[in-house]
Amino acid sequence: MPAENDLGDWFRSIPVVTRWWFSLSIVFTLLGRFGVLNIMYMFLNFDLVVYKFQIWRLFTSIVFYPLTPQTGFHYLINLYFLYSYSKRLESGLFDGRPADHLFMLLFNSIILIIIGFLINLFFLMDPLVLSVLYVWCQINKDTIVTFWFGMQFKAMYLPWVLAIFNMVVGGGGLKEIIGIFIGHLYFFLMFKYPQDFGGTRFISTPALLYVQSLVCA
């Protein structure tokens, strides 16, 4: 019982938007892994979404990860980054403003889905997590972070280190670059351009999300 209580207290301590994102990314992945949900119904595909009206793919392609014995470690790393950096943003920059945090995820997801349609990117968890990590790293760019083997450097370099690391070790890197691009687009439009250049803020959280967050609270 004490262990269950500790786990429940930990889960409830996670900010609400991060809690839902984290939980859904575990539930849908495990349901797909054990065959409860058919993987073929969860990947992103333009023709199936637009012409077959399988709209749910816009959602499942974000929260589902194709888990296999070969991808298990990478999936756990993704979950760690999702939990850690989304939580830090929601309890830091977006403290008391879950609607703004949710809008960031929605904006990044929409841009990511458009890119996914253009280049046939089927599963979107990797770049979405990287986009959130990138935003945190820009907000806290001078914070010292620790990477593998005790390497330390400023947070602003972490997304690029992860991209290069995955290129070398996993032979990938494209998804990380896409995530960095999307994170930078959000950060530039929401913060950099209006604050540093005195320009118009081109994106803002819709009032509907603020109303919904008050209802949920």
Q: Number of helix segments?
A: 10
Q: What are the segments in which pLDDT stays under 50 over at least 5 consecutive residues? A: none
β-sheet strand percentage:
under 5%
Find the CATH superfamily. Answer: Rhomboid-like
- Oligomeric state, counting identical vs distinct chains: single chain
- Report the CATH C-level class: Mainly Alpha
Q: What is the strand arrangement across the widest sheet?
A: 1-2
CATH-defined fold name = Rhomboid-like fold
Instruction: Please give the number of β-strands.
Output: 2
Class of secondary structure makeup: mainly alpha
Transmembrane segments: 20-44, 56-83, 103-136, 157-187
Subcellular location: Endoplasmic reticulum membrane
Family: Belongs to the derlin family.
Protein name: Derlin
Layout: helices, strands, pairs:
Elements: H1 2-13, H2 16-33, H3 46-50, H4 57-63, H5 72-91, H6 98-119, H7 125-139, E1 144-146, E2 152-154, H8 158-169, H9 174-196, H10 207-216
Antiparallel strand pairs: 1-2
